[in-house]
């Protein structure tokens, strides 16, 4: 699922200014019940394109906040979330700006995390929030958080995460 609209300030505030260290890409969810991974795509900022070790034009880092979602038979549209972990991975689709014969470190954060992904997940979970499914079909999902914010996600043919 790819996020196309939200009014949640924790998401709308992610876009940094012109000199931020990363440029916000897409936001989505990887759902494999009961696991839900909230995915944020970070790209190299435009101002860093000529810097060494910044990766290529298509390099990206995927940040995933992993939660466990549960609902009940009595209220299947209400999903309770528990924080279960965190993941960081990189995708370096091209060899732009790659240093020949170098280690992944020299190919920017995406190159480094592509070779050395981070996965932090343990046996404990913590409360993370709740959302209510307002609309759901094969191609679109509309939800409302318990803080009163809305999100509209669409299912894309080509998965980007």
Describe the fold and architecture.
- The chain is mainly beta.
- It is 7% helix and 49% strand.
- The radius of gyration is 18 Å and the shape is globular.
- Strand 6 (118-136) and strand 7 (140-145) form a beta hairpin.
- The protein is built from two helices and eight strands; from the N terminus they run E-H-E-E-E-E-H-E-E-E.
- Strands 1-8-7-6-5-4-3-2 form an eight-stranded antiparallel sheet.
- The protein has helices spanning 9-12, 108-115; strands at 2-6, 23-32, 35-43, 60-70, 78-91, 118-136, 140-145, 150-154.
Mean pLDDT: 89
Give the strand line-up of the largest sheet.
1-8-7-6-5-4-3-2
Query: What would the principal axes of the Cα set say about the shape?
Result: globular
Kindly state the percentage of residues in helix: under 10%
Number of strands: 8
Count of DSSP-assigned helices: 2
Secondary-structure content class: mainly beta
Major beta sheet summary: 8 strands, antiparallel
Classify the beta-strand content into a percent band.
over 45%
Would you kindly provide a brief summary of this structure?
The protein is mainly beta. 7% of the residues lie in helices and 49% in strands. The chain has helices at 9-12, 108-115, and strands at residues 2-6, 23-32, 35-43, 60-70, 78-91, 118-136, 140-145, 150-154.
């Amino acid at each position: 699922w790819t996020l196309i609209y939200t009014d949640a300030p924790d998401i709308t505030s992610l876009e940094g200014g012109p000199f931020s260290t990363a440029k916000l890409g897409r936001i989505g969810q990887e759902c494999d019940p009961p696991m839900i991974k909230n995915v944020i795509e970070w790209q190299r900022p435009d101002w860093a394109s000529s810097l060494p070790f910044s990766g290529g034009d298509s390099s990206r880092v995927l940040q995933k906040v992993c939660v466990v979602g549960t609902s009940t038979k009595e209220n299947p549209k209400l999903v309770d979330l528990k924080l279960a972990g965190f993941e960081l991975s990189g995708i370096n689709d091209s060899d732009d700006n790659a240093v020949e014969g170098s280690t992944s470190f020299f190919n920017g954060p995406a190159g480094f995390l592509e070779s050395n992904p981070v996965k932090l997940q343990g046996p404990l979970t913590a409360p993370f929030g709740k959302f209510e499914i307002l609309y759901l079909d094969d191609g679109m999902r509309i939800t409302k958080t318990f803080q009163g914010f809305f999100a509209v996600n669409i299912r894309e043919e080509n998965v980007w995460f």
